[in-house]
Design brief:
Keywords: Acyltransferase, Transferase. This is GNAT family N-acetyltransferase. With about 160 residues, this protein is an alpha+beta fold. It is about 30% helix and about 30% strand. The longest helix is centred in the N-terminal third of the chain and has 15 residues, at about 15-30.
Length: about 160
């Protein structure tokens, strides 16, 4: 399949599209997350609006051949006197997985935000752990650390992005 791939910042007028994609993401993630749908049959990811009202939050669509293929939500976090970027949420629809779309998207986003990064996965989500370890190892030439934090149940990859590949 010939792929025309791009990362596109989500504009306010496309917030509903992002909300809809978060429903697919939360459903896909439901095997790892104990959260249930609400009385309307929706997950309603609670932070979508924050990406349009708060500083340091960056929403992106992942597109393939001008079609929505997923999204990434990035945060700039200040913690204990240091600032780093966090891949808060990352979703690629199943039909676009296994052909490099997720890897391309992650690498482009790392390049777009040079500096320190943390990418965390839930302990139960072993497919995400394998994906992120592989992509971050490739991007950093295996120059990353894996840590644990008391307030998070799972591994966290810590690395520096130079803004290029």
């Amino acid at each position: 399949m010939d792929i025309n791939f791009k990362i596109e910042k989500v504009k306010l007028e496309n917030k509903t599209v992002l909300k809809n994609l978060t429903e697919l993401y939360k459903y896909d993630f439901s095997e790892f997350d104990p959260e249930d749908v609400n009385e309307h049959g929706l997950y309603e990811y609670m932070y979508v609006d924050h990406y349009f009202t708060e500083e340091g939050r960056f929403p992106f669509f992942i597109k393939v051949n001008e079609k929505y293929a997923g999204f990434a939500l990035i945060r700039e976090i200040e913690e204990n006197g240091r600032t780093y970027y966090s891949m808060s949420e990352f979703f690629v629809m199943k039909k676009y997985r296994k052909n490099g779309v997720g890897k391309q998207a992650a690498i482009q986003l790392f390049c777009k935000f040079p500096g320190e990064w943390e990418v965390a996965e839930m302990e139960e989500n072993t497919p995400a752990q394998a994906f992120w370890r592989k992509v971050i190892s490739l991007y950093t030439n295996n120059e990353y650390r894996e840590i644990r934090k008391a307030d998070w149940d799972g591994p966290i990859q810590v690395f520096h992005s130079s803004g290029s590949m």
